[in-house]
TrEMBL record:
Protein's UniProt keywords contain Cell cycle: no
CDD domains reported in the protein's UniProt record: PBP1_ABC_LIVBP-like
UniProt keyword terms in alphabetical order: Amino-acid transport, Signal, Transport
UniProt-listed SUPFAM superfamilies: Periplasmic binding protein-like I
GO biological process: amino acid transport
Protein name: Unannotated protein
InterPro entries recorded: Leu-bd, Leu_Ile_Val-bd, Peripla_BP_I
Domain Leucine-binding protein: 35-350
Keyword Hydrolase: no
Amino acid sequence: MTKNRLVSLVATVGIVAASLVAFTPAANAACSGKLKIAYQGPLTGPEAALGLNELNGVKFALKKFLKANPKANVDATVYEVDDQGDPAVAGPIAPKVAAEECVVALVGPAYSGASKVSLPIYLSAGLPIITPSATNPTLPTFGKEIFHRAVLTDDYQGPAAARLIVSKNKKAKVFLVNDASDYAVGLQKTVDISLGSRVVGKDVTPNGTTDFTATIAKIKRSKATAVFYSGYFSQAAVFVKQLRDSGSKIVFASGDGTLDNQFVKLARKSAEGSLLTAPAIPFETASPALAKEMVAAGWTPGVYTTESFDAANFFFEAIKAGNTDRASINKYVSTKSFKGLSKTLKFDAEGEVSGADVNGFIIKKGKIVLLGAIK
């Protein structure tokens, strides 16, 4: 999943560049206390649900690790970094994270827009990261040797989304809509290429749009049988509700930015039948027993909880193996493998994982239902 608000991005990059010099020396200092695992993502704001899903996975992994390894020199509290999924917020706070000498690893950032401004800082500080959900294909160029990704990129999700739509209607005619974010533009591009001549129209509804009347009119004139929306769940809910209120019964499809229980809660009955995709697997599917244990511990799993749980556990394996600083932990996760719930994490030279699937989902009776790997 990616997000990039172009407003303030130039200023943010400037802040990042200036901060590299100011914070890197402190970031390389030795930790004199307990080692800390950080999580970075949106913990407040309209998309906080995704960040909280991931944070819960990290918290649960930490709880289980310390229970199994009570003498481990690891802080019992996750170091929380709230970037609101916004690069303008992530830019100024990333140097502060890098300067925390006891933060030896970070799960995240959740979004690619925030990743693009954070990764150069973490690279300079040698802070290893494993993102559970940032899917922009260009991220390895920003993070280089400290970058690792636990999911497939949009280069895989886009074609999979196209296949899912066509599997439901061999003669599908698709209208594409995106919210102008980095994530949306990138994902739509791969969907567009994959669908080819099946695409009968396109429109852009910038993030924050509240009236989709003009777009809906274009969709109706195009005679499309399906619409693919590239964007996030908060705005997707408004869009699909207005679409259904207009009388349209067109198939509504979207990517991992919409795959959240909040989409169903906000759109209500209008979400019914929506087709969604994500390079993720629900925690309840990956391990029903652990999901039950997690709920009993006070944390509810959601989208990307599984991938965050796996990422955190890979870092804990590194620490358990005797690695207690950023450099050795980074070397461990870069060269070893870890059998997680979602997949076996084994990163290539670019920090990318292999052997994973893009899954399809459908909203049925108010619930997100897994359809399985999209073939």
